[in-house]
Structures are given as C-alpha cells and as structure tokens.
Design goal:
The structure holds two protein chains of two kinds. Chain A is an alpha+beta fold. Helices cover 30% and strands 25% of the residues of chain A. In chain A, helix 2 packs parallel to helix 3. The longest helix of chain A has 18 residues. By secondary structure, chain B is α/β, with parallel strands linked by helices. In chain B, the strands form three sheets. Chain B has a five-stranded parallel beta sheet. In chain B, strands 4-3-5-6 form a four-stranded parallel beta sheet, with helices on both faces. The chains are: A alpha+beta, B alpha/beta. At the A-B interface, helix 1, helix 7 and strand 14 of A face helix 1, helix 2 and helix 5 of B.
C-alpha cells in the first residue's frame, strides 16, 4: 500500500477493500465476509445495522441531492440484507457559510425520502467547521432494520449455488454520469438522471412473493464489476455475465465511449443485484418488472462452476474475457 | 448507438472470425502499435475469436508507457513549486517517477488538475494569472495538433503564464526501430487515429523498404477483425502493402489542416522513449517562435538522473520482444495500484491490459 491515502482508496474497488482489511478489520476484529450491514442477534431479535457517509459533489444533481442519497443509501444497505429498515440517524458536518436555504432543501428531501421508504429519522448530530475544513456539507446516516430469521442467509450468500441466475433491476451507470455531468457542466442530448432511490419496497415485494432469493447487494461505488468480484470471493464459484444483457442507457453509453469509462465500473444509487434459484428466476423477473423501480430488470448471467472464482464476461460481439474489479478511480484516457 | 453498433455487430464479427480461421493456414504475428488497439482487443475478447496460429503482440503505442522517466520527474519537480498549477491528461498522474508520482504529489497538496483538452488548460491559465500553468503534453500525432492550436491561441491572446512540457512523439520512427531490431513480424495493425492526421502515406515506407504489410485500422471489433483478415491475405499472397481498413476516417494524405498546425508550432527533434532510448527525429519540440511557451526554457528545473528498476522489462515489452508474464515483477510487486513500470499504469498499457484480463492464466 502506498504511504498516503489517495482518492483511489475511496473508489470502492480493490484498493478500498485493501484499506479496510489492512487497517480496520484486524484492529476492530470484524468477521468475514464483510457485508454492507452487520447482523446482530439479541434475545431472539435479529437486527441489521449499517452506517454510511455521503460527500457527493455537487450536492444537488439531476435526480436527487446529498440528503436523498443519505437516506436511500442507508435504507438500501439494510434492505439488501433482507431486513425491513426502521430507524435512521443523521449526522451533519457543515461548512461555515453554508446557505440555510440549501440546508432546508436537503432536510426537506431527507424527510420526504424517509416518508417514502417508511423509515423514521430518530436521532442525529450537527457540527459546523471553518471554511475550507469540509466541502459544503457531509452527511453520515446509520440505520437499523429488523431481519426475519429466514432471510438471514441473504447477506452471506450461503445458499448461492451454480446454476443460480443473476438479475439486475435496470440500467447501470446513471448516477455516476449524472453527477459527473453536473460537476463538469456537461450537456447531454437527452438528460441523464441519477437512479437514486430507496429500494426497500421493491425488495420487500420480491421477498414476499418469491422464495429462492439467495443473495442481494446494492450496486454502488465500484459498480457492478466490483459487486460481482466481491461475490465470487465469498461463494468461491465463478460468475458468467452476458455483456449485451446488462442494460445501459444510450447517453451513458455515449459518454463512456468518449471518456473511456466502463459502465460496469460506474456507481449507481438505485440498483440491486439479485442472485436467485434458477427454477424461480422467471417469477422474480415478473415481480420486479411489475414495480416501477424494476421495470427494466434483466437476467444478466449466472453462477458457474469454473474452478477459478473468476467473473467471465461474454462480450457483446461474441468474445470472452475476464471482468476484473476496478483498482482505483477511472481516469479519462488520452487518445 | 449510431456509428458504434454497426461495428460491434455480433453476426458480422463471427462471420469475419470464420473467414480468418479459414484463410489462416500459416503462422502469423501481427503487432498493434496503438494502445487504443491493445485495450480494444482485450476489452472485446478478440483473441478468443482468432485461431491459435495468429499471434497479436503489442508495440509502443501507449503514450504514457513510452514517456521517459525524466519527464515525470520534471513534472513532479514543477508540481512542488508553490506558484505552479500542473494540468494534465488523467492517465499520467499515476505514472511512477523517482520516489513519487503526480498522484502522490496531489495527495500531498500539489495543485494538479486533470483536463480533457489543451483549451481547458488554457482557460485555467486565464483564470489564474498569478500562477504558472504547465500543461503536460504527451501523445502522438493525434494529440499534438490540438496542443498546437492551444499554443497558437495562447500566443494570440497574449497569455503569459501558460507553458508546455512537451513529450509529444511521432509514431513511424519507433516502428522502424522495431523492424530494425529484428522483431519477427508479418504485419502491422497501424494506428487509425494517428493515420487520420498523418495520412496512410506516412507508413508506406514499411511495406516498400521492409516488406512488412500495414493495414490502417479502426478501433471497433469489426474494424480490427477485418484488418487482421486483410493482413492474413497480404501474407498469404506474399504481397505486403499499405491498405486502409479505417476508410471512414483515414485518407492517403491525412488531415492537411491539422498537419499544418502541427508543423507551424512543432519541429521534429531526437527524443527519448522509455525502453528504446533515443530515437532520431521522433519527438516534437516547440519551434523557436513559440519557445516562450516551453516550460523547460522558461522555468528551468533540475532533476536527478534515475535508473529504472533493473528487473522491469517494460522496454522489451514495448519493443514486442517479451510479454508481461515473462517479468518477475508482473502481478507480484508491479500491480495497477503500485506500478513499477509505465506499462502497468495506463489502461492502454500492455501490462495493465494483461493484468486486467488475466491473460495467459
């Protein structure tokens, strides 16, 4: 590891994983596999507990703002563990000089998103720092959800087996491109809107109507490629993905072509990967597609026994290659 | 997406793959000299569509990879100056210099900004008149005309705080060095974007003088497979030639206007290539009338001479003599997060490509 923390350590890819394992896991005594939520058992009750910090720049972007993101992100981390999100805390670090008007807009959008997703914001903290000591506003949310014992296997991927199908609830890359567009004032022929959304109702519907949900993970920083590679690390089987089945919207595709980004590495804030038993995958797809947040759901691949724990991509032109995890932030190419 | 989907058509791709397999009854080694080709070949899984008797090897076409260590060290020295803002294309910031990289300097507070074009860097200069803005100019004939126009703009607008640290290079001399070193080749997959500027004629000395076929190639799967098919046929007919596959972008003469801008601002000079050493008339430096924009002349900086890691074989990889898995550092100490050699830095670098797609595993 390099001597200093670099932006690459925050990319969500393999360097982030190294930082967490080398610095935190051993000192805090955390148990593998590392999941987005901790599963806590106390006197017959199973709780799902998570925390996340939000530092997005710009704080307002097409499709959301830092407040909505802070609620959705924590709700989603709980929901993908199989839990019903119930309570959320919210801590604010605010830069001196931040307009009250913007703060109120952010708080309004948090309240609205909490209402939509059915969670209550019950506690929090506020700190103000001198100008230049933080970038406008940083928010940390923590959340508690209640987990049914029969969903306990989901976050650890215990039941995942070869032949299981991988399903995603829609197009990837929109959040990253919407934020990048807003940050660099890029204009698109058709607007790219962040997919920022609370997925707990969609996930609840799937869990209530289907039985063979073997794994779920929200696809955020590091993109689909990161989630897939993390999963092969847990299940010790391979994954095969069909590139042409992964939905990507045209403007996102276009910008990726220009800047040399891979949509499979881009961040999302309203996408979830399901691993489901083969026998039930059509039903899961139907249930997902009947919900507004799952209308464009697709089967993108399956779990395979390839002996090497690799993610293989069947490319859109009929070739094959390995899909690796991004190592750091994606940099624009030169020529 | 228009202009993309038709060149990624699976039916057409598989048809071309079939044609190549039927035509290829000898052994063939083709070299792609553009990093864009290296990246595309592996991104789309092209080798899985070729028969085993066609070998693709990568040449010195990644601008980051061939940039000499001393260039990075100079950029780092400039980045340490309080009144300097470094502007650069993104790939360059991770390239290791002596004990540091621009990325590390940035983490330590250096003002280093990633830009997408020369004009963007010039805008930063106009907005920060109290600072010296140094643009790190790297790349081949594809990027040089844009930088030339930026220098002309700076001159016209009387901008006095904009400087170029130039490592711009031209491609054909390096290809000639590879041939002269005796790398066994049956054909070049020639760089489509370089040729869009220079014209196909810039490469015609290769089949003429060295009897090695050249196909100017586009960057989509259909382009590359068609070019490979054309090269296979050239070899089978024993008639090395210069052919343009990428005819939607490339002509024989190239882009005359871009060439003029380049020639107005730059002059050919001997230049150092990582892995090759000095190659005669292979670099572009500013002409005398634009020397006031030359960072090295305007802001002299001293750097220590540094030897490359002795175990690193990037030089031989860039010359197509060795492949990354021959290197003891590859995927052990030299990884994308901690690159020892430049070929592990850029997405177009051969080592990074091999690492990313686990080739030969």
């Amino acid at each position: 590891m390099s001597e200093y923390v670099s932006l690459n350590h925050g990319s969500g890819g393999s360097l982030t994983g190294k930082l967490i394992r080398n610095v935190f896991v051993k000192r805090f005594g955390l148990a593998e596999p590392l999941t987005d939520s901790a599963i806590l058992k106390e006197k017959g009750v199973i709780l799902s507990f998570t925390t996340d910090s939000y530092v997005v720049d710009p704080i307002f972007f097409p499709g959301g703002d830092i407040g909505k993101l802070a609620v959705c992100g924590t709700v989603n981390d709980l929901a993908v563990s199989g839990a019903v999100p119930v309570f959320i805390s919210a801590s604010f670090i605010i830069e001196e000089g931040f307009p009250f008007h913007d703060l109120e807009l952010i708080a309004d959008s948090m309240a609205e998103e909490a209402k939509n997703s059915g969670v209550r914001i019950v506690t929090g903290d506020t700190k103000v720092v001198e100008q230049g000591k933080c970038d406008k506003i940083f928010i940390t949310t923590s959340g508690i959800g209640i987990l049914r014992p029969d969903f306990e296997h989901i976050s650890t991927a215990k039941n995942v087996k070869p032949g299981d199908k991988l399903i995603i609830n829609g197009a990837v890359g929109n959040h990253a491109i919407a934020v990048l567009g807003a940050r660099n004032k890029l204009t698109f022929n058709s607007p790219v809107v962040s997919d920022c959304a609370s997925l707990n109702h969609l996930i609840r519907k799937v869990l209530e109507e289907c039985e063979k949900i073997h794994f779920m993970r929200d696809i955020t920083r590091g993109g689909l490629a990161t989630v897939l590679n993390e999963l092969t690390g847990i299940i010790l089987s391979g994954i095969e993905i069909n590139e042409s089945c992964v939905p990507v919207e045209e403007p996102v595709k276009g910008l990726c072509e220009i800047l040399g980004f891979n949509p499979l590495f881009l961040a999302n804030e309203g996408k979830v990967l399901f691993v489901v038993g083969n026998e039930e995958h059509k039903k899961v797809l139907d249930v997902l597609r009947s919900h507004p947040l799952g209308k464009y759901s697709e089967v993108i691949g399956e779990i395979v026994e390839n002996g090497s724990n690799l993610v293989t991509l069947n490319t859109s032109i009929g070739g094959r290659r390995i899909l690796d995890m991004p190592s750091g932030i994606q940099l624009p190419r030169i020529c | 997406m228009k202009h993309i989907d038709e060149y990624r058509d699976k039916v057409l791709v598989l048809k071309l793959s079939g044609l190549i397999k039927r035509a290829a009854d000898l052994s063939y080694t083709f070299m792609e000299v553009c990093g864009g080709h290296t990246a595309a070949i592996h991104r789309f899984g092209i080798p899985s569509l070729l028969p085993e008797n066609i070998k693709l090897i990568s040449g010195p076409g990644c601008p980051v990879c061939v940039t000499d260590n001393s260039f990075i060290d100079k950029a780092i020295a400039y980045a340490k100056m309080n009144d300097v803002i470094i502007t650069t294309f993104g790939d360059l910031i991770r390239v290791p210099g002596t004990g540091s990289s621009l990325e590390k300097e940035k983490a330590m507070g250096g003002d280093i900004r990633i830009v997408f074009s020369g004009p963007e860097a010039l805008d930063i200069a106009k907005a920060n008149r109290d600072k010296k803005i140094i643009f790190l100019g790297i790349g081949f004939e594809t990027t040089a005309p844009g930088i030339a126009v930026t220098i002309k703009e700076a001159d016209k607008d009387g901008v006095k705080n904009f400087y170029l640290l130039s490592a711009h290079k031209v491609m054909p001399p390096a290809m000639e060095v590879i041939i002269k070193e005796g790398v066994e080749l049956n054909g070049f997959i020639c760089p489509g974007h370089v040729a869009a500027i220079t014209g196909a004629a810039a490469f015609s000395f290769i089949p003429r003088n060295y009897k090695i076929g050249c196909v100017i190639t586009g960057f989509e799967p259909v382009d590359m497979l068609q070019a490979i098919y054309m090269l296979v046929n050239q070899v089978n007919r024993s008639s090395p030639d210069i052919e343009i596959q990428y005819s939607r972008a490339v002509t024989k003469q190239g882009n005359i206007i871009a060439q003029k801008h380049m020639n107005d601002v730059f002059i050919l000079s001997d230049d150092n290539w990582r892995g090759f050493g000095k190659i005669a008339l292979s670099g572009l430096r500013l002409r005398e009338e634009y020397e006031k924009f030359d960072a090295e002349k305007a802001i002299p900086v001293k750097i220590k001479e540094k030897k490359d890691n002795e175990l690193c074989i990037c030089g031989n990889i860039l010359r197509g003599i060795r492949i990354p898995t021959d290197c003891t550092l590859f995927a052990t100490t030299c990884i994308p997060e901690n690159p020892i050699g430049a070929c592990m830095v850029s997405d177009e670098g051969t080592c990074k490509t091999f690492y990313k797609y686990r080739i030969n595993e």
